[in-house]
Specification:
Blueprint (H helix, E strand, L loop, with lengths): L4 E2 L9 H9 L19 H18 L5 E6 L2 H13 L5 E6 L2 H10 L4 E7 L23 E4 L1 E2 L4 E2 L11 E4 L16 E5 L10 E6 L16 H6 L9 H17 L1 H22 L16 E4 L7 H10 L2 E2 L10 E4 L6 H18 L1
Parallel strand pairs: 1-12, 3-4, 3-5, 5-8, 8-9
Antiparallel strand pairs: 2-10, 6-7, 9-10, 11-13
Helix pairs in contact: 1-6, 2-6, 3-4, 6-7, 7-9
This protein binds pyridoxal-5'-phosphate.
């Protein structure tokens, strides 16, 4: 067996231990004689898998009891619409912070449902920083404030939690969810597509404060109503059973290695390796403000974009793939999620030095 180092932004690398265990359990899950994919979502086996995944998630993030955990579908993209549908509560206005490509998509979608006010934006400097709190112009009568806490494409991460007073704070945390401890009680709602840092595509995790439930707009489809989903343990319709099972194994993997403080320590070390290299080099560039650099997604460029293709080809020859940057920013991007081992980042850093020595 040979595993490559996969730097994809998502669907992304998963822990090898998790995949191996899923392989072991493929034909017969815990003596049930069934694969998890074959189980009824109403059966006791799958109910126990989903309940345990929720318990482990609650434990890892220390989620307070007055928050509901939902296992939904439709990706983070559906949340761009589902959040306004559920949280406006007749208010008709919401505040959004614009820090890049994913913020823009959320804003565009929300505009179909309400009056969107851009409370802060980093567009003036090509989305290379997180607007500091004093620059946020919030409306006290907004239904909620939405921001993207880690911009996957631009590589900008909020390393602090905004203060929005009594207006609920909503975060698209897709690409750094579970990469560090999080003070859930500071948020009204947190959502994340699983395929970045938690599991396979097809599962979206929503953590929502209980008092925000029950405000869905008239005409909201049943499966998109948070309150109804919460009351049905996210099983109003057939949930993404296998994706929930794999995410559950990833949560166990996280717990076994020491939980979020330990994964954060590892993520800091991995990111530091790359950023130190970028900063000490006159060859590579990362445009993001140092204090706002993402630990998960590290975009970088070489001096001449004609070197992009040779860089990517050499990386592939050395067992490293999916390093091409997003088309909107160009260059390269290394996504170094929880499951990327330090050795993968060391190999990348070694190759980057080698490439610089040859072309710099
Ligand atoms: C990937 C991503 C999305 C979109 O996720 P889908 O599951 O494809 O809908 C939204 N927001 C962020 C921050 C992302 O990284």
């Amino acid at each position: 067996m040979s595993r490559i180092f996969n730097f994809s932004p998502g669907p992304a690398i998963l822990p090898a231990e998790v995949l191996a265990r899923a392989g072991d359990e493929m034909l017969d899950w815990h003596g049930s004689g069934m694969c998890v994919m074959e189980m009824s979502h109403r059966g006791k086996e799958f109910i126990s898998i989903a309940a345990e995944a929720e318990r482990d998630l609650r434990e890892l993030l220390a989620i307070p009891a007055h928050y509901k955990v939902l296992f939904l579908q439709g990706g983070a993209t559906l949340q761009f619409a589902q959040v306004p549908m559920n949280l406006l509560g007749g208010k008709g206005k919401a505040d959004y912070v614009n820090t890049g490509e994913w913020s823009k998509k959320a804003i565009k979608e929300a505009k179909a449902y309400c009056d969107v006010h851009i409370a802060a934006s980093s567009e003036d400097r090509s989305f290379t920083y997180a607007p500091p709190q004093p620059a946020w112009k919030l409306r006290p009568d907004a239904a909620y404030v939405h921001y993207c806490s880690n911009e996957t494409i631009g590589g900008v991460e909020f390393h602090w939690v905004p203060d929005t007073g009594s207006v609920p704070l909503v975060a698209d945390a897709s690409s750094h969810f579970l990469s560090r401890p999080l003070e859930v009680s500071r948020f009204g709602l947190i959502y994340a597509g699983a395929q970045k840092n938690v599991g396979p595509a097809g599962l979206t995790i929503v953590i929502v404060r209980e008092d925000l439930l029950g405000r869905a707009a008239k005409g909201t489809p049943t499966v998109m109503d948070y309150k109804l989903q919460a009351a049905a343990d996210s099983m109003l319709n057939t949930p993404a059973t296998y994706a929930i099972y794999i995410a559950g194994l990833v949560l166990k993997w996280l717990k076994a290695l020491g939980g979020l403080p330990e994964i954060e320590r590892r993520n800091v070390a991995k990111a530091k390796l790359l950023y130190d290299l970028l900063d000490s080099s006159g060859f590579y560039r990362n445009p993001v403000e140092k204090a706002d650099r993402s630990r998960m997604n590290v975009p970088f460029r070489v001096p001449d974009e004609r070197l992009d293709a040779p860089f990517l080809k050499g990386a592939e020859e050395r067992g490293m793939v999916q390093l091409k940057g997003h088309r909107s920013v160009g260059g390269m991007r290394a996504s170094i999620y929880n499951a990327m081992p330090l050795e993968g980042v060391e190999r990348l850093a070694g190759y980057m030095k080698e490439f610089e020595a040859r072309h710099g």
